[in-house]
Amino acid sequence: MVVPAYNEAKNLPLLLFKIDNSFKKNKINGEVVLVDDGSTDNTKEVTIELRKKYRFLKAIRHEVNRGLTNALITCFKNSTGQIIIFLPADLESNPEEDIPKLLNKLNEGYDMVCGWRQKRKGIKKISSNIYNMLSRLLFGINIHDLNWIKAFKREVIKDIRLRSDWHRYLAILAKSEGYRIGEVKVNAYKRKYGKSKFGISRLFIGIIDLLVVKFHLSFIDKPMLLLSSLGVVLLILAFFGGVYLLIIKIMTGVLGNRIPLFFLVVVLIILGIQLFALGFLAELLVTMNERINKNK
After folding, report:
1. Which of 196, 219, 242 is the last residue of a domain?
2. Do 162 and 91 share a structural domain?
3. 3-state class (DSSP) for residue 124
4. Burial letters 179-192, b for 16+ CB under 10 A, else e
5. What's the CA gap between 296 and 95, in Å, rounded?
6. pTM to 2 decimals?
7. Rounded-to-integer distance, Cα 35 and Cα 169, Å
């Protein structure tokens, strides 16, 4: 179990109690890796007391808040289980219900299982629906709730390199590596203590990151496909613009007020050639990087 926590002191005692109950009821030999991500409340003191009560609890603290992705990376590095379950510390997920649901679905042959929140309400549901719809369109992944609880095999995380805020794309990145992704319906609960760290204001950032991930997965290994294609498009536009100007010159003898179009054609030619050349250079860098990694 990996649990990032930021200012969740009031939620942690009940969370650990529920996890402990789930371990006992389902006869699970597990551990909980909890990362206090620079909390400013008394999460540190509460965690110290909880460690005395629960032997399976392993606690790590970031002295400053590094964000959820970095907290998860710390969790992964300090975990030892072959199956990893990610749960939030805010009790919007119920460990007693969700741990067996995730594990049972994982045992059906999936490499990763995502929780699909049911009966969500409020404006955050709208932003989540938009984000998940775009994800399905861009990546062809048939998952309804990408940014919630997950269970997955350890080898999945070994093949994924996370960057800032990329925790929400775990399922997408896993799918790109060929892993089988499933989902299971889970209940969504309102938090009792503390405030949510996320809201609709992050939708715009999430969409931008989504496009970055799409670019990363589609073109990182074949940059020439994108850059040189754009260069060719610009050169084609410049060609037709040049032909139009040539016809006007032959028919009238002057370009007249079409001088700006002439300069636009020149700019398009320059940019087209530059992008085409940049594509070749990027492709060369990718090839060199592959050779270096191969010889390590």
Report:
1. 219
2. yes
3. helix
4. bebbbbebebeeee
5. 42
6. 0.72
7. 20
Q: Which of 180, 197, 219 is the last residue of a domain?
A: 219
Beta-ladder partners of 125: none
Question: How many other C-beta atoms can be found within 10 angstroms of the C-beta atom of residue 20?
Answer: 18
Both structure tokens of 83:
């199956």
* Measured distance CA(211)–CA(226) in Å, rounded: 14
Torsion of CA 167, 129, 151, 182, to 10 degrees: -130
DSSP string, 5-39: ESS-TTTHHHHHHHHHHHHHHTT----EEEEEES-
pLDDT in tens, 69-92: 889 999 999 999 899 999 999 899
Residues 227 and 215 in one domain: no
Q: Give the CA count within 13 Å in the CB-facing half-sphere of 63.
A: 0
Q: 29-70: per-residue pLDDT in tens?
A: 999 999 999 999 899 999 999 999 999 999 999 999 888 888
Both 109 and 234 in one domain: the answer is no
- Phi and psi at 47, nearest 5°, equal -60, -40
